[in-house]
Amino acid sequence: MSQRTLDQILVEAQGLLVPFGDSVPESERLQAVVRGIELYQPGASTDYSGHLVLVSMPISGDDGLAALCAECVDAAALVLPAGTARGLQAPAAPVLLRRSPWVSGDTLIRALAGIVRDPNALEDPSEASEREAALAVRRRQSALLALLNGTSEAALPAAVVGLRPDRAHVAVAAEVPTRSLERFRLALAAEFPEECSVLSEGILLAVVPVATAETAGDVVERLGARLRRAMRSSGDLPVGIGHRVPGVYQLHESAAAAREILRALNIKLGARPLASEGAVRIASAADVDDALMIVRSGDALVPYENDLTAPLAVLADYDREYRSDLLTTVYTALEFRENISEAARQLGIHPNTLRARIDRIRELSGIDLTDPASALRAVLGFVSSKRMRALARHTIDSGDAPT
């Protein structure tokens, strides 16, 4: 059982938990010993006495808050969701806290579990040190993701990460193979010692503090030169560099730009953007203007996706039923539309076979690759539909022989 008081826990959880409302809890309540952590379960006969109770459900007005407090009146404190309206009338008990908007729920639970733990409990010193180090890493990662995704309270996570709010920064987004991740991070840190990074959904996101006169283009040159020396055998390595922002409060804008540039670098309509530069393809917005416009146009076309892709969907259904590759054929023929021999080579078939397939595609779906308007609609269909692109590229990427 924990021997820590609520007051001690709040000191150690500073920045993770914030007071709810303007009232100051009574000293007696702050000195109460916290027994542990519980997740609030509506309607369940749970004993919340002396626990920190984490609430995930939204609070519906003053009555909802009053009912919640009545059900958990013996709790040491209630931790309300980050988005809970601050103007609600708070009952006298229990103590009410709010999760800081920059910290994720799972990070908060892990952090509080470590803080509430009995300090006198027997634990191997090395295990305790590893646990605390891991917790610190998770806090920094959660704080950095909050800054990159956008938060109304940027000062707290910036302090956790160690970023100066008054200094200019640039965000970086990179698609790095797992085997090359450590080498990439070392190269990044060697060029920008004050950088900080986090892996999110397979994308490495980083923040780079920059000098007064330094631009995103300067970061492209510096980091590009470093990566080309350090990552020669890494394979394709697209890296997006967001625009310079004056402080931490706009980091999410630079991060959104870096992600968008990374998407532009991954467009494949013919050779990928900047393919002539080798494995390391690093760019700011100015370097991939055409591809960036395609990405943004594709996003704008999403509401029309079903109409644009209707002929492609006919081919996708046909491929599924007859194990053919007509959708892949359209994709490849558009990619190499000026060179039917190269398109056939990419598909592993004879040019005459490709011509026969193109005729069959026209009969089945109405897609006429010799007609500019019909071919353009097919291109827009692929641009607007991630699903169609994935289906069309499946055969190419998997190396299966077309039928």
What does this entry look like structurally?
InterPro entries: CdaR-like_regulators, CdaR_GGDEF, Homeodomain-like_sf, PucR_C-HTH_dom, PucR_C-HTH_sf. This protein has 17 helices and ten strands. The chain has about 400 residues and is an alpha/beta fold. The protein folds into three domains: about 110 residues; about 120 residues, Alpha-Beta Plaits (2-Layer Sandwich), CATH 3.30.70.270; about 100 residues, PucR C-terminal helix-turn-helix domain (Arc Repressor Mutant, subunit A, Orthogonal Bundle), CATH 1.10.10. The strands form two sheets. It has a five-stranded mixed beta sheet, covered by helices on one side. Strands 7-8-6-9-10 form a five-stranded mixed beta sheet, sandwiched between helices. The chain starts with 5 loop residues before the first helix and ends in a 5-residue tail after the last helix. The relative contact order is 0.07. The C terminus is likely disordered.
